[in-house]
Amino acid sequence: MLNKEQIKEIIPQREPFLMIDEVESYTPGEGAIAYKNVSEDEYYFKGHFPGNPIMPGVLMVEALAQTGAVAILSMEENKNKNALFGGIDKLKFKKQVVPGDRLKLEVKIIKRKGPIGIGEAIATVDGKIAVKGELTFAVV
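Above: the chain's sequence. Below: its structure in C-alpha coordinate form.
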Protein backbone atom coordinates (compact mmCIF):
# COMPACT_ATOMS: atom_id res chain seq x y z
CA MET A 1 0.00 0.00 0.00
CA LEU A 2 1.36 3.42 -1.00
CA ASN A 3 0.21 6.63 0.70
CA LYS A 4 0.12 10.06 -0.97
CA GLU A 5 3.72 10.89 -0.11
CA GLN A 6 4.94 7.61 -1.62
CA ILE A 7 2.76 8.17 -4.70
CA LYS A 8 4.42 11.59 -5.17
CA GLU A 9 7.80 9.84 -5.30
CA ILE A 10 6.59 8.10 -8.50
CA ILE A 11 4.30 10.55 -10.35
CA PRO A 12 4.73 14.33 -10.70
CA GLN A 13 1.14 15.46 -9.91
CA ARG A 14 0.58 17.50 -6.74
CA GLU A 15 -2.40 18.89 -4.86
CA PRO A 16 -4.91 20.05 -5.87
CA PHE A 17 -4.43 17.93 -9.01
CA LEU A 18 -3.25 14.70 -7.37
CA MET A 19 -6.35 12.56 -7.95
CA ILE A 20 -5.39 9.36 -6.11
CA ASP A 21 -5.18 8.95 -2.35
CA GLU A 22 -3.59 5.52 -2.05
CA VAL A 23 -2.28 2.69 -4.18
CA GLU A 24 -3.31 -0.80 -3.10
CA SER A 25 -0.92 -2.58 -5.43
CA TYR A 26 1.13 -2.07 -8.56
CA THR A 27 3.47 -3.97 -10.82
CA PRO A 28 5.90 -1.78 -12.79
CA GLY A 29 5.01 -1.83 -16.48
CA GLU A 30 1.93 -4.00 -15.94
CA GLY A 31 -0.75 -2.25 -13.91
CA ALA A 32 -1.98 -0.68 -10.70
CA ILE A 33 -4.96 -0.49 -8.37
CA ALA A 34 -5.59 2.79 -6.54
CA TYR A 35 -8.34 4.64 -4.68
CA LYS A 36 -9.78 8.14 -4.61
CA ASN A 37 -11.85 9.01 -1.54
CA VAL A 38 -14.32 11.55 -2.89
CA SER A 39 -14.83 14.20 -0.20
CA GLU A 40 -17.47 16.90 -0.11
CA ASP A 41 -14.56 19.35 0.30
CA GLU A 42 -13.17 18.72 -3.22
CA TYR A 43 -12.53 22.07 -4.91
CA TYR A 44 -14.54 21.21 -8.03
CA PHE A 45 -17.81 20.59 -6.17
CA LYS A 46 -18.23 24.35 -5.63
CA GLY A 47 -19.16 24.69 -9.30
CA HIS A 48 -20.00 21.14 -10.45
CA PHE A 49 -22.85 21.41 -9.47
CA PRO A 50 -24.03 23.64 -6.59
CA GLY A 51 -26.63 21.67 -4.62
CA ASN A 52 -25.99 18.53 -6.70
CA PRO A 53 -22.25 17.72 -6.48
CA ILE A 54 -21.02 15.26 -9.12
CA MET A 55 -17.36 14.43 -9.78
CA PRO A 56 -16.53 15.61 -13.31
CA GLY A 57 -15.99 12.75 -15.74
CA VAL A 58 -12.72 14.21 -16.97
CA LEU A 59 -11.37 14.08 -13.40
CA MET A 60 -12.35 10.41 -13.08
CA VAL A 61 -10.39 9.80 -16.28
CA GLU A 62 -7.46 11.80 -14.87
CA ALA A 63 -7.54 9.65 -11.71
CA LEU A 64 -7.35 6.55 -13.90
CA ALA A 65 -4.48 8.07 -15.89
CA GLN A 66 -2.57 8.81 -12.69
CA THR A 67 -3.14 5.21 -11.59
CA GLY A 68 -1.70 3.96 -14.86
CA ALA A 69 1.17 6.43 -14.50
CA VAL A 70 2.12 4.74 -11.21
CA ALA A 71 2.63 1.48 -13.13
CA ILE A 72 4.53 3.10 -16.00
CA LEU A 73 6.64 5.65 -14.13
CA SER A 74 7.68 3.12 -11.47
CA MET A 75 9.73 1.34 -14.15
CA GLU A 76 13.42 2.07 -13.62
CA GLU A 77 13.89 3.49 -17.13
CA ASN A 78 10.94 5.91 -16.64
CA LYS A 79 11.92 7.41 -13.29
CA ASN A 80 11.64 11.25 -13.26
CA LYS A 81 9.68 11.26 -16.54
CA ASN A 82 6.08 12.21 -17.31
CA ALA A 83 3.30 10.12 -18.78
CA LEU A 84 1.06 12.23 -21.03
CA PHE A 85 -2.27 11.46 -22.68
CA GLY A 86 -1.91 10.24 -26.23
CA GLY A 87 -5.58 9.37 -26.65
CA ILE A 88 -8.76 8.10 -25.08
CA ASP A 89 -10.78 5.34 -26.73
CA LYS A 90 -13.94 3.35 -26.02
CA LEU A 91 -14.68 5.49 -22.96
CA LYS A 92 -18.09 5.05 -21.32
CA PHE A 93 -19.49 6.76 -18.24
CA LYS A 94 -21.90 4.48 -16.39
CA LYS A 95 -22.44 5.96 -12.92
CA GLN A 96 -22.29 9.35 -11.23
CA VAL A 97 -19.65 9.71 -8.52
CA VAL A 98 -20.65 11.87 -5.56
CA PRO A 99 -19.22 12.97 -2.20
CA GLY A 100 -18.70 10.01 0.12
CA ASP A 101 -17.92 7.56 -2.70
CA ARG A 102 -14.69 5.58 -2.69
CA LEU A 103 -13.56 5.30 -6.29
CA LYS A 104 -11.58 2.16 -7.05
CA LEU A 105 -9.23 2.74 -9.98
CA GLU A 106 -7.76 -0.18 -11.94
CA VAL A 107 -5.45 0.10 -14.93
CA LYS A 108 -3.89 -2.83 -16.77
CA ILE A 109 -1.24 -2.04 -19.38
CA ILE A 110 -2.28 -4.04 -22.44
CA LYS A 111 0.21 -2.75 -25.03
CA ARG A 112 3.60 -1.03 -25.04
CA LYS A 113 5.92 -0.09 -27.87
CA GLY A 114 8.77 2.22 -27.01
CA PRO A 115 7.45 5.24 -25.09
CA ILE A 116 3.83 4.67 -26.23
CA GLY A 117 1.33 2.34 -24.63
CA ILE A 118 -2.32 1.60 -23.89
CA GLY A 119 -3.95 0.96 -20.55
CA GLU A 120 -7.29 -0.74 -20.03
CA ALA A 121 -8.92 1.41 -17.35
CA ILE A 122 -11.95 0.88 -15.12
CA ALA A 123 -13.25 2.85 -12.15
CA THR A 124 -15.88 1.43 -9.83
CA VAL A 125 -17.84 2.41 -6.74
CA ASP A 126 -19.05 -0.47 -4.56
CA GLY A 127 -18.42 -2.86 -7.46
CA LYS A 128 -20.50 -0.83 -9.93
CA ILE A 129 -18.75 0.58 -13.01
CA ALA A 130 -18.49 4.38 -13.04
CA VAL A 131 -16.25 4.69 -16.11
CA LYS A 132 -14.24 2.39 -18.34
CA GLY A 133 -12.20 2.67 -21.49
CA GLU A 134 -8.70 2.62 -22.97
CA LEU A 135 -6.10 5.31 -22.30
CA THR A 136 -3.14 5.80 -24.61
CA PHE A 137 -0.05 7.30 -23.00
CA ALA A 138 3.29 8.66 -24.08
CA VAL A 139 6.27 8.71 -21.73
CA VAL A 140 8.34 11.89 -22.14
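The mean pLDDT is 97.
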